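ok trying again, last paste got cut off:
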Amino acid sequence: MLYNQSLYEINTRIWLRRFDQGIIKSTLNDVPNSYWDDLAKKGMDYIWLMGIWKTCNSVIDRCCFEEGLKKSYDRALKGWKREDVVGSPYAIDVYEINPELGNHKSLLELKSRLNKKGIKLILDFVPNHFSADTRLIKTNPGIFISVDKELFKRDSHTYYQPNQNEQKYFAHGRDPFFPAWQDTIQINIFSKEARKFLINTLLALTKICDGVRCDMSMLLLNNVFNNTWGGVLGKNGFDKHESEFWTEAISEVKNERADFLFIAEAYWDLEYDLQQIGFDFTYDKKLTDRLKYAPVKEIHDHLLADNNYQKKSLRFIENHDEERAAAILGKEKSKAAAVIISTIQGMRFYYDGQFEGKKIKLPVQLGREPEEQQNNVLKDFYNKLLTITSHEIFNRGKWILLKPEPSLDNNSTFLNILSWIWSFKDEKRLIVVNYSETLSTCRIKLDVRGYQEDFLIKDLLNDQSYMRSAEEVYNSGLYIELKPFQSHIFSF
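nice, full thing came through this time. structure:
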């Protein structure tokens, strides 16, 4: 497996509207080949079509207009209307494509188109819950957490009665640190029936995509699930399961299709645990947060983690859950952060609109996006960065974290600089980033034994070339001077 590849996330329901012809709504079939060709040129190996599954419109009015959500709509989309609210894509009815986006055939055709271009298709898998109004309540009620009337009356926020004519009560899906999600129903992962149902769902997905991004994956770990629901399940005769669901599921799916990719949305320092039980990649939210707020030393130390762990980490500065990088970091810092996540080990993860400098974080319940002016400076920057990082050295090379040293003037600004090097065959790429608001200098010692005494070093990011002394670079180090949040990507 090539670990250092690139993933591009698309908010499908929003994005597809860009291709509409007047009142005629576009489907997946209507996206021109040129769009996918452009992403292939940018080095995207995987496309994640977020939010393509069928949802239940019946939950929108009762679940999608609480005050907090309406305020988020106000911030994102001035003058929004009722019809702009289409519900959460994570409150799934069933794993059938939303008919407004296409059908089973159009999804298969899209996968074929992408695969021919060397791109693989990633779709959502939401193992913790379904929509509160899913049809599965009638056909497969045993896969959900059911409760008695007494518990429902005691906590009608966490538990609900789907049908007023039936004395049946279920739990809403939840994260233990937050109130229950009113538009969902909780799956009982300690139920053999539920596990079989979810594994069969995954096996079916292997026929229509190349991998899944698994929503809130850590919620299904036995200890987490037991801490969240153990008291309720104990009354119903469900004990903590001996084996992890993910161990069973990933093993069975990989036996069917070894190249099927499992990506975990994961938090709470459980990323390593999820990698150990079979996930190919896990979110690296800690790096995202450190790039926003932490001192450079914390970022450097973060990159000292075990190489195998880093290779399986998903590196990003924005996605549909995060604030837009251009808004929260600003233009120059977001460029520096992009250089970092694009040139370290792990899967590089980008979000639709990131390359154009979009600043508005859109709630997932909205089905219409505001018009935003394209930032041509950021667009040109990403075009250049992605052209550079599409070279095979960033996929196949060996990565080493470096430690900048004080320059001759012996000031402490060298602590503001991050640096690492890629080596492959007879080529090298040296990355240097001043991740601070201060002009900073340093020296970086490089092993240039065998190079001519005066050798050429090219800055691919800034279109500059320099002649340097091999003896000086080896013994004293390459002298670096960078303005705030500026970067070099050297080839030598």
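cool. The domain at 398-491 is CATH 2.60.40.1180 (Immunoglobulin-like). The two ends are 27 Å apart (CA to CA).
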